[in-house]
Amino acid sequence: MPRSRSALRLADVAELAGVSLATASRALAGRDGVSDKVAEHVRQVANQLGYVANMHARTLAGGSTSTVGLIVHEIGDPYFSEIASGVIRVAGERDLMVQICHSGRDPEKEFRQIQTIIAHRAGIIIVAGSGYCDPRAQARSKAALTAFQASGGRVSVIGRHHLTADAVLPDNEAAGRSAAEHLLSLGHRRIAVVSGPDSLTTVEDRLAGIAGAIQRGGLTWSDIPVIPTSFTRDSGLQATEQILRDHPETTAIIALTDAMAIGVLSALRAHGIAVPDRISVVGLDDVSVAADLAPSLTTVRLPMAAMGELALAMALKPQSQRPRRKSTGHQLVVRDSTGPVPSG
Amino acid sequence: MPRSRSALRLADVAELAGVSLATASRALAGRDGVSDKVAEHVRQVANQLGYVANMHARTLAGGSTSTVGLIVHEIGDPYFSEIASGVIRVAGERDLMVQICHSGRDPEKEFRQIQTIIAHRAGIIIVAGSGYCDPRAQARSKAALTAFQASGGRVSVIGRHHLTADAVLPDNEAAGRSAAEHLLSLGHRRIAVVSGPDSLTTVEDRLAGIAGAIQRGGLTWSDIPVIPTSFTRDSGLQATEQILRDHPETTAIIALTDAMAIGVLSALRAHGIAVPDRISVVGLDDVSVAADLAPSLTTVRLPMAAMGELALAMALKPQSQRPRRKSTGHQLVVRDSTGPVPSG
DNA sequence: TTGAAAGCGCTAACAA
DNA sequence: TTGTTAGCGCTTTCAA
């Protein structure tokens, strides 16, 4: 790719304004050491010329970095696109650029993306998406991020990671509990769970919440069928087939994500099984289409966009002694996919 | 934000490898002018040290730029997140970073984002999202992009824009035609259209396709109610209320986007109106949830992810004499939301 | 308050 | 094939 060069340099502005390079630099950066009069004049000239500073030169010379790297599993996934939307919104307010990479939920690829972001000298790195239960999975990423922080970079993560960094912690356990309690309160005892990859902390936490509620409800957790799959609609669909086959007595299904819940609903519809009359379905996340499914999906809302905003806001603050941790809220949203246990 | 500095410089690698800066640079950039033996050695040393080049220094020194700027309306919108996914996928293969900005469908904000991207010295700018019917809306953006191209930058756009650049042209007109013809073939004569902002070329084109089909079908276009709103689910919902009130005889609704079609379905469900038995609904885009709505949505598929991939692929080729233009395909996807006109 | 000059880390001419 | 050197455009000491 050929280099892109805008003829306009700070030197041009300085010359036209009749000041030195240094003065022009100070004026435009809003630093002090310049009289208001001169500063204003320089800014006017720059504006007139349509001057925009070369970020590369600025960063290289030791100026501040104005880009934030965001690592998501896959931007096409609504969970992540909503987080990204929040990050970009806050970034836009501060004139920061957001660079987005796909990790593909692969620790190795995640590490490579982190390397690339560091090479681009981002000042902030946000790792969105679940952490891994096994600390070793992210060992290399952790080392890279620690070095990055040591050199002044700021890091924040969304989710429970084995990384030493400010963290936005989705209420995964509480959300799982909430979903399960909702079903229990409707009288369901034959509950099945469509789960995700059990290498992920998100899965661990959501399951823990569900398990706790189940046990407090007087049921035995190990009696509950838990089908591990991946976080996709199709996996939800297949897992449902399996549940219908192996556990026909099931009256309620919890899907660990809305994406999977959509697959669950599809499978049930294909089988002509009435929701919620015969089987209730509850998801987690509350992606924006959840309300528009038929039946509309009962789910537990996690504020994805707000999580993205918060992650960047935390990273914009100076590093604290110990990593900050902020929990998000969660909220059970009861819609039409859940109902009382069938009397049959 | 403090600067982020990795102590490791090319000079360190060169020294440790026992070669000059220039040789090290050549070796790592994969340029020739170095013996394979030396090159390999340098690369090994660099790898061992965990060296990653400073992009800013590299770009400033006249090397190639490795970032692409992508302007979308809003990344939380599935249409754009799928496009972005395609762009990021291709970028990942080539070690390019993708910077994403929101235009908010506001020409002024779009211009500012373009400025910012140019300041960051991206080598490629991709403008996704509809163009504006009024060329003046994008006049400033156009000027900025033209200057950018003149200095070696590459630009590609998705949609019909008044910009001189390589373009991926969604089959908007054909898609509109296809949707309308489908309804006509089912016998519908009382068709209403839920449209978007008529400042957008996307709206103009989709409506043109629909109008053409309608007229060829023997109907009078001006008799068809066209409700202009915005491209959102809620607008689709409200427009439907209006259609039910003002045009109760309607047997089919075309929504210009799936997002709006989702709102249409919601409104009809709220009114207890059977789809497709009393009213058929067809959307455009085929966002991924379209298949999972109930009833599943008949729509016309535009390959969003492929469009994103294509846009970047075009921009990666050297600029041609005249702007390239590539049409995307489109495909009618018949699902359960459309059926024959009610016999009543 | 202002200006001159020394880099930031790299690439790319130019020499050897 | 390799090395030397002059910048790229900016920020930031250090002097004035």
UniProtKB/TrEMBL annotation, chains A, B:
Coiled-coil residue windows:
none
Question: Would the keyword Transcription regulation turn up in this protein's UniProt record?
Answer: yes
Disordered: annotated segments: 316-344
GO molecular-function term, one example from the UniProt record = DNA binding
Q: Which UniProt keywords apply?
A: DNA-binding, Transcription, Transcription regulation
Concerning CDD domains, the annotation shows: HTH_LacI, PBP1_LacI_sugar_binding-like
- Ranges for the HTH lacI-type domain? 8-62
- Report what the protein is called: LacI family DNA-binding transcriptional regulator
Q: Which organism is it from?
A: Polymorphospora lycopeni
